[in-house]
Amino acid sequence: MNSNKTTGLIASNASQKTIEIVNQSLAKRYRSEKRFQRLGMAAIFISLLFLVVLFISITAKGYTAFWQTYIQLDIYLDPEVFEQGDLKTADYPGLVKKTLRDRFPDAKERKEKRALYRLVSTGASFKLRNLVLKDPSVVGETVAIWVPSDDDVDMLAKGFLGEGEQKGQGRLSAKQIQWIGQLTQAGKLKKRFNTSFFTSGDSREPELAGIWGATVGSFLTLILTLVLSFPIGVASAVYLEEFAPKNRWTDLIEVNINNLAAVPSIVFGLLGLAVFLNFFGLPRSAPVAGGLVLTLMTLPTIIIASRASLQSVPPSIREAALGVGASKMQMVAHHVFPLALPGMLTGTIIGMARALGESAPLLMIGMVAFIVDIPGGFTDPSTVLPVQIFLWADSPERAFVERTSAATMALLAFLIVMNLGAVILRKRFEHRW
After folding, report:
1. What is the C-alpha separation between 278 and 283, in angstroms, rounded?
2. Cα-based angle 189, 194, 197 (whole degrees, multiple of 5)
3. Half-sphere exposure of 112 toward its Cβ, with a 13 Å CA cutoff?
4. Of 206, 231, 247, which one is at a domain's C-terminal end?
5. Same domain, 135 and 160
6. Mean pLDDT of the region 326-341
7. Nearest Cα to Cα of residue 94 among 59, 124, 134
8. Domain interval for residue 107
9. This prediction's pTM
């Protein structure tokens, strides 16, 4: 009897020690879990903080590009200038210069006149030309027209020049700053919304440069990439996942697809240069060549995402379709594929977003060329937004700094919209099992 009590007491003590050990280990695990959660939250907070700093930095440098300084000129359209009857080739720059000389008669020496002419952009004559071509009846009248100022005047009006430069010790002389002050007091110099930034192509002059040409080039390139990569990528994924036999050849293909997804993008640019340009002779710096290169780059991403989406469809769907007499093709086409399509679309949009932000492969096929005209087709010379940002970032003019940041803001906006579209598609069409 005593031995039974002793045994029970020993067992009770042993269980209490075990419970104490378990409680101690549980408390230790809970502390480790909380510490890990805090580290995770800190990592997310730091990442968001850096992201916010990045956005604030880009916005602070680029928002001023959405405003441009304009100068109002009262130009007399002398009929003698148009006496030959050709409105397209009239001396519009001469009319602008004459108006400036009449406005500031104290500019008498040749050096002072050249400084006076530099107050307005070279695009002033083109804006006057467009006005006359649109309404020829204004010839012989005095028209008040707002023309873009030179980029140095724009930088002065926006307060980007240093104290010494504001006193005429920089690119703007003291005389020019005096003339600018007179225009400001007379209400002839104002900042307006810069519509040309969104409607114009590239230019050597910062005040005339816009992103519309690069935007159209990006659109054409992405359209071709989508048309080629989506059906090929989805068809490849369906075949590999549903129909292909499991052997060493399909294993080799899967390994190569996974490896291609990690290949640096510039390698695809070298491939496009060697194959599409040098071998097939496609036009350099054209959306057709850029679209083919980006198709090769995005195919692995789309195939991997599409296969993952197909694998997420429960096997019971396949078994039920086959059980009621459907063929394997009918089972895939009518049951599996519709359920996997939202994930495929999400992967495709993510691949397109990556392609939109790529510049390295397009640099290799010549899309770094200076393109002024807006592309009208897939074979016209063009550039894309990332390459346009690269070109502007390499320009020495100070006004291109804000253009670079503003173009980056536009590119980030496109990327956010595309990724937001991917999230909406996934949430709207996602099936939870």
Report:
1. 10
2. 140
3. 13
4. 206
5. yes
6. 89
7. 124
8. 68-206
9. 0.84
